[in-house]
Amino acid sequence: MNVRLRVLILLVIVAVAWYAQSTWSFTPEQAMAGRAAYEQNCSTCHGANLRQLPEALLAGREFAAKWGGRGTNELIAQMRTSMPPTNPGGLPEETYAAIAAYLLQFNGGGADGQVLTPRTTTRISDALAARGASSASAGASGVSPGRTGVTVAGTVPDFVPVTDAMLRSPKPDDWLMLRHDYHATSYSPLSQITSANASQLELAWMWPMREGGTNQPAPLVYNGTMFLANTGGIVQALNAQTGKLIWEHAVGAEVAPRGLVLYGNHLIFHSAAAWALNKQDAYLVALDARTGQQVWKVQMPDVYATNSGPLLANGLLVQGMGTCAIYEDNKCFISAYDPATGQQRWRFRTTVLKGEPGGDTWGALPDLYRAGGESWITGSYDPELNLTYWGTTQAKPWMPASRGMKTEDAALYSSSTLALDVSTGKLAWYYQHAPGEAFDLDEVFERVLVDAGRDRWVFSVGKDGVLWKNDRTSGQYLAHLETVFQNVWEHFDPKTGKPRYRQDIIDSKVGDWIDACPSTAGGKNWHAMSFHPPSRQLIIPLSQTCMSFRAQAIEQKPGGGSGGGATRRLFEMPGTDGKLGKLAAFNVDTMKQIWSLEQRAAFLTSVLSTAGGVAFAGDLNRSFKAVDVKDGRVLWETQLATSVQGFPISFAVNGRQYVAVATGLGGGSPRGVPAALSPEIQVPPRGQALYVYALPGK
Fold first, then answer.
1. Which of 123, 294, 313, 604 is the most buried (most CB within 10 A)?
2. How many Cα atoms are found within 13 Å in the side-chain-facing hemisphere of 336?
3. Is the pLDDT of residue 201 over 90?
């Protein structure tokens, strides 16, 4: 072979290699890994919708305009020089490339089966133009849907339809709804596992879960069958005693719901196709709980996605809403649906408009620019009063200066407890815990219902860490307690409980740095507290971090808005000695702290308490532990494959009590903020699974 021919062949090889680098995009698996990495390292600042920082929007027209003419290699290089903020360049090279693949996919780019690398020079506008079936259907989850419908066939034996009476008075062996019961106690009446024998707990079985996506499941158990929402839109029925798969249904590449509903013969859940940039298509889906076959799937009109799932109350499915940060006519609302058909029955809008009672609480802000008030945590229910109780988030953007409002503008019904008539959706009462909320320290989380003789109470804890006690018949303020150090509220009215911000917060403007404790991680976040009736204690997972906050200018234009609108700097909470996680018990009658367990790793699960006097919780450092409800003493502890995250439950089959918990990745501030402040805690990027424990068998 002569020299000229060798040179020509070499040039062809170089050209082909260059063409492959410059035109190929990414693989679905790479985008899936990128999503997990984004949620772990980036979502705290940029948000789940990639649009939380106005000056660094990673989705939508602004992203395409800024990056469209540049190469994917430039995007990856920019990430390496600036991310994560606390450790720029500290991630592996392949992780930055995977995050870039996820950004391309989220913005509609098509996966073509070639791995994106830091040397790939594809113009981002070309990558985004390569929209194909793979991207439109896989969407932000990064999972290629493949088959949908029943993918593993089977039948749950001896299934008996679930009735309203069962939901009102669940059998001790079952765990029939999110947080166990209508009062949201997260308490099991089972007592086989006790403070005396909890140290003997051992693994009964383990079920691997799909990698990729956020994993915060809340399984249900009914008559020996477990129903589990897996990641990637996979729903499964398992034998709760052995872990054997009974059936599996693939909804598609959709958001994994936290909560499931069992009613009649149906397993019902909220599902969201997460690929749309500003609006997420939300559906209610009903499967036959016996076989996993789809019964119906109905789009929820005007609803944006929330992954907590509906509440079945008095024959209606009541569903909250998320992602209401866009300046548009559609506002957040709580809505109810017919469980037989999925048809919407009523709505209650959580943002008050001009001309309505409370419409002046948004100052002079036009209706178009009133945003927020999400209700993304499933509510609770009092069957005797026929009232359902929901929390709401703050107004959007986060800070009043960014909203074009004053701190004194309360912005109803943001950061409130709402009591709604289940049959009609009409407001019975509201109580606003954080008027004019200014730091993303909202009040959206679970409402726990507690009785004391003839008194009926509702308890809640917001991100500011304040535990609130209200009369659940009237909403009257009864008491409050600061569960962690907070310095945003200067004063609480002793009669009404109404808080007042520090003066420097009231006077703050766009561009001012303001110190605030707690941080956006909470205080308290989505991880549910548990009410332990025998000891009259609320056992609450808390977080001890702080921040400096700076409001940004948000342009008021149709289609604009921001789910954030502020920059943050994080620091440890004073007086905690670096102990970011706190598990604490509070007496509901006296409103006094009984005990606390503080540790370096943040708690990432809800709390499960049991009649055996044991409470369970898991943390960022892969630890799942049992503690004594009397004093918080650790009774048993095990370390799992990755961070422990989700909703622990307890159930019994054939007389044996089990405790189940999941490991998971993904999530926003409650995970990302403590992780940034405790970088020495190394969390494996894989290892999502469900673990089930019991005492040794006979």
1. 604
2. 18
3. yes
